[in-house]
Specification:
With 116 residues, the protein is mostly helical. 67% of the residues lie in helices and 0% in strands. α2 packs antiparallel against α6, α4 crosses α6 and α5 runs antiparallel to α6.
């Protein structure tokens, strides 16, 4: 077993890292584009909306996503639209944390230059 200097789980610094906050802000802002403007009027708006749409589709609306938790909360407490928006933003934040952690983990894995 080798002692890896790399963390195996997100460290406290990943939760509030600049890259985490940038990815989260990008996803949160671009997810609201359809509410503010017509995304079909200009190609750039569609391109900006695609990443947040894919994260929502793959990690929120999926069978393993947070939407199931929101269904349970909404069924018990009600709450209207608020739990759905909070669920989306929590999904974007957790996605940003994982992307930052994975990026740091992969950046630490560098080839040694020695042939196998």
């Amino acid at each position: 077993m080798t002692d890896s200097p790399l963390p195996t789980a997100p460290t406290p610094t990943v939760w509030f890292a600049r890259s985490t906050l940038i990815v989260f802000t990008f996803l949160a802002v671009t997810s609201q584009l359809p509410a503010v403007l017509d995304i079909y009027s200009f190609v750039l708006w569609r391109v900006l909306f695609i990443p947040s749409y894919l994260v929502t589709l793959l990690f929120y609306d999926a069978p393993w996503g947070l939407e199931n938790v929101v269904y349970a909360i909404d069924g018990v407490l009600g709450g209207g639209k608020l739990p759905w928006e909070v669920g989306s933003f929590v999904t974007y934040y957790l996605f940003a944390v994982v992307v930052t952690w994975l990026g740091r983990r992969l950046a630490g894995v560098r080839p040694t230059g020695k042939p196998n």
